[in-house]
Write a structure and sequence with these properties.
The chain has 344 residues and is α/β, with parallel strands linked by helices. 35% of the residues lie in helices and 17% in strands. The radius of gyration is 20 Å and the shape is globular.
Amino acid sequence: MSGALDWGRAVALIEQADEVCLACHVSPDGDALGSMLAFALGLRRRGVRCVASFGDPFVVPSILRFLPGQDLLVEPAGYPVDPDIMLTFDAASSERLGSLAPHAEKARELIVLDHHASNTGFGTVHLVDPEAAATAVLAEKLLTRLGVDLTCDIALGLYAGLASDTGSFKFASTTPAVHTLAARLLSAGVRPDAVGRELWDRAPFGYLQVLSAALGQARLEPGAAAGHGLVWTSVPRADRAAHGLPYDLLEGVIDVVRRCDEAEVAIVFKETDEGGWYVSTRSRGAVDVGRACSALGGGGHRLAAAFSTMEEPATSMVRLRELLAASAGRPGQGTVPIGDEVVS
Protein backbone atom coordinates (compact mmCIF):
# COMPACT_ATOMS: atom_id res chain seq x y z
CA MET A 1 0.00 0.00 0.00
CA SER A 2 2.83 2.40 0.76
CA GLY A 3 3.84 2.31 -2.91
CA ALA A 4 0.67 4.26 -3.71
CA LEU A 5 1.56 7.05 -1.30
CA ASP A 6 2.63 10.36 -2.80
CA TRP A 7 6.06 10.61 -1.21
CA GLY A 8 7.52 12.59 -4.11
CA ARG A 9 4.99 15.38 -3.93
CA ALA A 10 5.27 15.61 -0.14
CA VAL A 11 9.07 15.90 -0.36
CA ALA A 12 8.87 18.53 -3.10
CA LEU A 13 6.40 20.67 -1.16
CA ILE A 14 8.50 20.58 2.01
CA GLU A 15 11.76 21.30 0.18
CA GLN A 16 10.22 24.36 -1.49
CA ALA A 17 8.49 25.70 1.61
CA ASP A 18 9.52 28.82 3.51
CA GLU A 19 7.73 27.50 6.58
CA VAL A 20 6.08 24.20 7.41
CA CYS A 21 3.26 24.04 9.96
CA LEU A 22 2.80 20.77 11.87
CA ALA A 23 -0.22 19.59 13.85
CA CYS A 24 -1.29 16.39 15.57
CA HIS A 25 -4.61 15.32 17.03
CA VAL A 26 -6.07 16.72 20.23
CA SER A 27 -5.08 15.09 23.54
CA PRO A 28 -2.01 13.65 21.80
CA ASP A 29 -0.66 10.20 22.61
CA GLY A 30 2.90 8.98 22.20
CA ASP A 31 2.56 8.33 18.48
CA ALA A 32 0.94 11.66 17.63
CA LEU A 33 3.23 13.92 19.67
CA GLY A 34 6.35 11.79 19.31
CA SER A 35 6.06 11.66 15.52
CA MET A 36 5.34 15.36 15.20
CA LEU A 37 8.17 16.50 17.46
CA ALA A 38 10.64 14.12 15.81
CA PHE A 39 9.67 15.54 12.43
CA ALA A 40 9.95 19.12 13.71
CA LEU A 41 13.48 18.40 14.92
CA GLY A 42 14.30 16.89 11.54
CA LEU A 43 13.07 19.99 9.74
CA ARG A 44 15.16 22.19 12.05
CA ARG A 45 18.24 20.13 11.16
CA ARG A 46 17.51 20.87 7.50
CA GLY A 47 17.19 24.57 8.26
CA VAL A 48 13.47 24.62 7.49
CA ARG A 49 11.45 27.01 9.63
CA CYS A 50 8.52 25.24 11.33
CA VAL A 51 5.91 25.49 14.05
CA ALA A 52 4.10 22.62 15.74
CA SER A 53 0.94 22.50 17.80
CA PHE A 54 -2.26 20.66 18.65
CA GLY A 55 -5.79 21.81 19.40
CA ASP A 56 -7.08 22.98 22.76
CA PRO A 57 -6.68 22.07 25.52
CA PHE A 58 -3.05 22.78 24.79
CA VAL A 59 -1.43 20.73 27.54
CA VAL A 60 1.34 18.21 26.90
CA PRO A 61 0.40 14.98 28.72
CA SER A 62 2.62 14.52 31.72
CA ILE A 63 3.84 11.09 30.56
CA LEU A 64 5.13 12.71 27.35
CA ARG A 65 7.00 15.63 28.84
CA PHE A 66 10.27 13.76 28.43
CA LEU A 67 10.06 14.12 24.64
CA PRO A 68 12.61 16.51 23.09
CA GLY A 69 11.61 19.28 20.70
CA GLN A 70 8.89 20.86 22.81
CA ASP A 71 10.52 24.26 22.39
CA LEU A 72 9.11 24.15 18.84
CA LEU A 73 5.53 23.97 20.12
CA VAL A 74 3.28 27.01 19.88
CA GLU A 75 -0.15 27.48 21.40
CA PRO A 76 -3.10 27.22 18.98
CA ALA A 77 -3.68 30.97 19.27
CA GLY A 78 -0.22 31.57 17.79
CA TYR A 79 -0.58 29.07 14.94
CA PRO A 80 -0.66 30.53 11.40
CA VAL A 81 -4.27 31.07 10.35
CA ASP A 82 -3.81 30.07 6.70
CA PRO A 83 -0.66 27.91 6.42
CA ASP A 84 1.01 27.50 3.07
CA ILE A 85 2.22 23.95 3.82
CA MET A 86 0.69 22.03 6.72
CA LEU A 87 1.36 18.46 7.89
CA THR A 88 -0.92 16.53 10.22
CA PHE A 89 0.15 13.53 12.30
CA ASP A 90 -1.99 10.61 13.48
CA ALA A 91 -5.31 12.37 12.79
CA ALA A 92 -7.91 10.27 10.98
CA SER A 93 -10.11 13.28 10.22
CA SER A 94 -9.91 17.05 10.28
CA GLU A 95 -12.25 17.03 13.29
CA ARG A 96 -9.53 15.28 15.29
CA LEU A 97 -7.47 18.46 14.94
CA GLY A 98 -9.90 20.29 17.20
CA SER A 99 -9.34 24.04 17.22
CA LEU A 100 -6.72 23.70 14.47
CA ALA A 101 -9.22 22.18 12.02
CA PRO A 102 -10.10 25.60 10.48
CA HIS A 103 -6.38 26.20 9.87
CA ALA A 104 -6.15 22.89 8.02
CA GLU A 105 -9.11 23.83 5.83
CA LYS A 106 -7.37 27.08 4.82
CA ALA A 107 -3.97 25.51 4.13
CA ARG A 108 -2.82 25.71 0.51
CA GLU A 109 -1.41 22.17 0.76
CA LEU A 110 -2.31 19.74 3.54
CA ILE A 111 -0.09 16.65 3.88
CA VAL A 112 -1.70 13.93 6.00
CA LEU A 113 0.47 11.30 7.75
CA ASP A 114 -1.72 8.66 9.35
CA HIS A 115 -2.18 4.92 9.80
CA HIS A 116 -5.85 4.68 10.83
CA ALA A 117 -8.15 2.55 8.68
CA SER A 118 -10.92 5.04 9.47
CA ASN A 119 -9.05 7.95 7.83
CA THR A 120 -11.56 10.09 5.95
CA GLY A 121 -9.23 11.04 3.12
CA PHE A 122 -8.99 14.71 4.05
CA GLY A 123 -6.05 16.80 2.85
CA THR A 124 -4.35 17.29 -0.52
CA VAL A 125 -1.42 14.87 -0.14
CA HIS A 126 -2.10 11.50 1.46
CA LEU A 127 0.58 9.52 3.28
CA VAL A 128 -1.98 7.20 4.86
CA ASP A 129 -1.14 3.53 5.35
CA PRO A 130 -3.38 1.42 7.63
CA GLU A 131 -0.79 -1.34 7.46
CA ALA A 132 1.81 0.85 9.17
CA ALA A 133 2.27 -0.03 12.84
CA ALA A 134 2.34 3.64 13.81
CA THR A 135 2.37 7.10 12.29
CA ALA A 136 5.99 7.18 13.49
CA VAL A 137 6.79 4.65 10.76
CA LEU A 138 5.53 7.07 8.10
CA ALA A 139 7.26 10.04 9.72
CA GLU A 140 10.57 8.17 9.65
CA LYS A 141 10.10 7.29 5.97
CA LEU A 142 9.43 10.91 5.08
CA LEU A 143 12.43 12.11 7.09
CA THR A 144 14.62 9.59 5.27
CA ARG A 145 13.37 10.83 1.91
CA LEU A 146 14.20 14.37 3.02
CA GLY A 147 17.76 13.26 3.76
CA VAL A 148 17.52 13.80 7.52
CA ASP A 149 19.94 11.71 9.57
CA LEU A 150 18.71 10.23 12.83
CA THR A 151 19.89 12.02 15.94
CA CYS A 152 19.18 10.64 19.38
CA ASP A 153 16.44 13.25 19.95
CA ILE A 154 14.72 12.51 16.63
CA ALA A 155 14.98 8.78 17.25
CA LEU A 156 13.54 9.20 20.75
CA GLY A 157 10.34 10.78 19.44
CA LEU A 158 9.94 8.11 16.76
CA TYR A 159 10.64 5.30 19.23
CA ALA A 160 8.05 6.68 21.66
CA GLY A 161 5.49 6.60 18.84
CA LEU A 162 6.46 3.13 17.69
CA ALA A 163 6.48 1.67 21.20
CA SER A 164 3.17 3.33 22.09
CA ASP A 165 1.21 2.01 19.14
CA THR A 166 2.64 -1.51 19.26
CA GLY A 167 1.87 -1.80 22.97
CA SER A 168 5.57 -1.98 23.77
CA PHE A 169 6.04 -4.37 20.84
CA LYS A 170 3.47 -6.93 21.96
CA PHE A 171 0.68 -6.35 19.39
CA ALA A 172 0.49 -8.09 16.02
CA SER A 173 1.51 -4.88 14.28
CA THR A 174 4.99 -5.74 15.60
CA THR A 175 6.38 -7.09 12.34
CA PRO A 176 10.02 -7.84 11.46
CA ALA A 177 10.11 -4.41 9.82
CA VAL A 178 9.02 -2.81 13.10
CA HIS A 179 11.87 -4.50 14.96
CA THR A 180 14.30 -3.42 12.23
CA LEU A 181 13.20 0.18 12.64
CA ALA A 182 13.37 -0.12 16.43
CA ALA A 183 16.92 -1.41 16.12
CA ARG A 184 17.89 1.64 14.05
CA LEU A 185 16.37 3.95 16.63
CA LEU A 186 18.17 2.21 19.48
CA SER A 187 21.41 2.46 17.52
CA ALA A 188 20.91 6.23 17.46
CA GLY A 189 21.08 6.27 21.25
CA VAL A 190 17.54 5.66 22.50
CA ARG A 191 17.34 3.91 25.89
CA PRO A 192 14.28 1.61 25.84
CA ASP A 193 14.27 1.24 29.62
CA ALA A 194 14.00 5.00 30.09
CA VAL A 195 11.22 5.31 27.51
CA GLY A 196 9.33 2.37 28.98
CA ARG A 197 9.48 3.85 32.45
CA GLU A 198 8.11 7.20 31.27
CA LEU A 199 5.29 5.70 29.20
CA TRP A 200 4.10 2.81 31.39
CA ASP A 201 5.92 2.37 34.67
CA ARG A 202 5.25 5.52 36.65
CA ALA A 203 2.20 7.26 38.11
CA PRO A 204 1.32 9.33 41.18
CA PHE A 205 -0.35 7.60 44.12
CA GLY A 206 -3.65 9.26 43.16
CA TYR A 207 -3.72 7.18 40.00
CA LEU A 208 -3.88 4.01 42.08
CA GLN A 209 -6.84 5.42 44.01
CA VAL A 210 -8.71 6.39 40.85
CA LEU A 211 -7.91 3.06 39.20
CA SER A 212 -9.17 1.24 42.27
CA ALA A 213 -12.50 3.09 42.08
CA ALA A 214 -12.83 2.38 38.35
CA LEU A 215 -12.16 -1.33 38.81
CA GLY A 216 -14.48 -1.47 41.80
CA GLN A 217 -17.43 -0.32 39.69
CA ALA A 218 -16.58 -2.30 36.56
CA ARG A 219 -19.53 -4.22 35.12
CA LEU A 220 -19.28 -7.58 33.34
CA GLU A 221 -22.01 -8.39 30.80
CA PRO A 222 -21.38 -11.95 29.56
CA GLY A 223 -24.30 -11.96 27.12
CA ALA A 224 -23.46 -8.65 25.45
CA ALA A 225 -21.68 -8.20 22.11
CA ALA A 226 -23.68 -11.08 20.57
CA GLY A 227 -22.67 -13.41 23.37
CA HIS A 228 -18.97 -12.57 23.32
CA GLY A 229 -19.21 -10.56 26.52
CA LEU A 230 -18.10 -7.07 27.47
CA VAL A 231 -16.71 -5.33 30.52
CA TRP A 232 -17.04 -1.61 31.06
CA THR A 233 -16.43 1.08 33.63
CA SER A 234 -16.20 4.85 33.95
CA VAL A 235 -13.94 7.43 35.53
CA PRO A 236 -15.96 10.52 36.52
CA ARG A 237 -14.26 13.88 36.71
CA ALA A 238 -15.07 14.06 40.43
CA ASP A 239 -13.02 10.92 41.11
CA ARG A 240 -9.98 12.52 39.50
CA ALA A 241 -10.53 15.82 41.26
CA ALA A 242 -10.64 14.10 44.64
CA HIS A 243 -7.06 12.93 44.09
CA GLY A 244 -5.77 15.82 41.98
CA LEU A 245 -5.24 13.53 39.00
CA PRO A 246 -5.05 15.14 35.52
CA TYR A 247 -7.12 13.64 32.71
CA ASP A 248 -4.12 12.65 30.61
CA LEU A 249 -3.02 10.06 33.16
CA LEU A 250 -6.12 7.91 32.50
CA GLU A 251 -4.87 6.44 29.23
CA GLY A 252 -3.66 3.20 30.83
CA VAL A 253 -6.96 2.32 32.56
CA ILE A 254 -8.26 0.50 29.48
CA ASP A 255 -5.18 -1.73 29.45
CA VAL A 256 -6.08 -3.04 32.90
CA VAL A 257 -9.80 -3.47 32.22
CA ARG A 258 -9.19 -5.34 28.95
CA ARG A 259 -7.42 -8.18 30.79
CA CYS A 260 -10.78 -9.65 31.82
CA ASP A 261 -10.90 -13.21 30.42
CA GLU A 262 -14.69 -13.33 30.32
CA ALA A 263 -15.10 -10.32 28.02
CA GLU A 264 -14.31 -9.96 24.33
CA VAL A 265 -14.78 -6.19 24.50
CA ALA A 266 -13.52 -3.69 27.10
CA ILE A 267 -14.84 -0.13 27.40
CA VAL A 268 -13.73 2.78 29.58
CA PHE A 269 -15.61 6.09 29.80
CA LYS A 270 -13.36 8.97 30.89
CA GLU A 271 -14.93 12.30 31.78
CA THR A 272 -12.96 15.28 30.50
CA ASP A 273 -12.36 18.53 32.33
CA GLU A 274 -15.03 20.10 30.10
CA GLY A 275 -17.67 17.59 31.18
CA GLY A 276 -17.79 15.41 28.07
CA TRP A 277 -16.82 11.74 27.89
CA TYR A 278 -14.04 10.15 25.87
CA VAL A 279 -14.76 6.46 25.35
CA SER A 280 -11.93 3.96 24.74
CA THR A 281 -12.80 0.51 23.39
CA ARG A 282 -10.76 -2.65 22.80
CA SER A 283 -11.59 -6.01 21.21
CA ARG A 284 -9.82 -9.37 21.17
CA GLY A 285 -10.84 -9.92 17.54
CA ALA A 286 -14.39 -11.20 17.30
CA VAL A 287 -15.98 -7.74 17.46
CA ASP A 288 -15.17 -4.79 15.21
CA VAL A 289 -15.09 -1.93 17.71
CA GLY A 290 -13.88 0.45 14.99
CA ARG A 291 -17.14 -0.03 13.11
CA ALA A 292 -19.18 0.58 16.25
CA CYS A 293 -17.24 3.71 17.23
CA SER A 294 -17.40 5.12 13.70
CA ALA A 295 -21.19 4.92 13.88
CA LEU A 296 -21.00 7.13 16.97
CA GLY A 297 -18.82 9.75 15.33
CA GLY A 298 -15.46 8.32 16.35
CA GLY A 299 -13.14 5.85 14.69
CA GLY A 300 -9.93 3.88 14.92
CA HIS A 301 -9.12 0.27 14.14
CA ARG A 302 -11.02 -3.00 14.28
CA LEU A 303 -9.51 -3.91 17.64
CA ALA A 304 -9.01 -0.44 19.15
CA ALA A 305 -11.20 2.59 18.66
CA ALA A 306 -12.79 5.50 20.47
CA PHE A 307 -15.47 8.16 20.31
CA SER A 308 -16.56 11.23 22.27
CA THR A 309 -20.00 11.95 23.66
CA MET A 310 -21.84 14.32 25.95
CA GLU A 311 -24.19 11.54 27.12
CA GLU A 312 -23.77 9.85 30.46
CA PRO A 313 -22.13 6.40 30.30
CA ALA A 314 -25.31 4.44 31.09
CA THR A 315 -27.14 6.23 28.29
CA SER A 316 -24.33 5.78 25.77
CA MET A 317 -24.09 2.09 26.59
CA VAL A 318 -27.63 1.46 25.30
CA ARG A 319 -26.68 2.38 21.73
CA LEU A 320 -23.14 1.01 22.04
CA ARG A 321 -24.43 -2.44 23.03
CA GLU A 322 -26.57 -2.53 19.88
CA LEU A 323 -23.68 -1.50 17.65
CA LEU A 324 -21.27 -3.99 19.19
CA ALA A 325 -23.77 -6.82 18.72
CA ALA A 326 -24.16 -5.83 15.07
CA SER A 327 -20.37 -5.71 14.67
CA ALA A 328 -19.72 -9.15 16.13
CA GLY A 329 -19.02 -12.56 14.67
CA ARG A 330 -20.55 -15.76 16.04
CA PRO A 331 -19.69 -16.59 19.67
CA GLY A 332 -16.54 -18.67 19.79
CA GLN A 333 -15.45 -17.37 16.38
CA GLY A 334 -12.82 -14.81 15.58
CA THR A 335 -10.82 -14.66 18.79
CA VAL A 336 -7.39 -13.41 17.84
CA PRO A 337 -4.60 -15.92 18.49
CA ILE A 338 -1.53 -14.87 20.45
CA GLY A 339 0.52 -12.56 18.28
CA ASP A 340 -2.35 -11.37 16.08
CA GLU A 341 -3.53 -8.32 17.94
CA VAL A 342 -3.42 -4.91 16.28
CA VAL A 343 -4.09 -1.95 18.54
CA SER A 344 -3.52 1.77 18.14
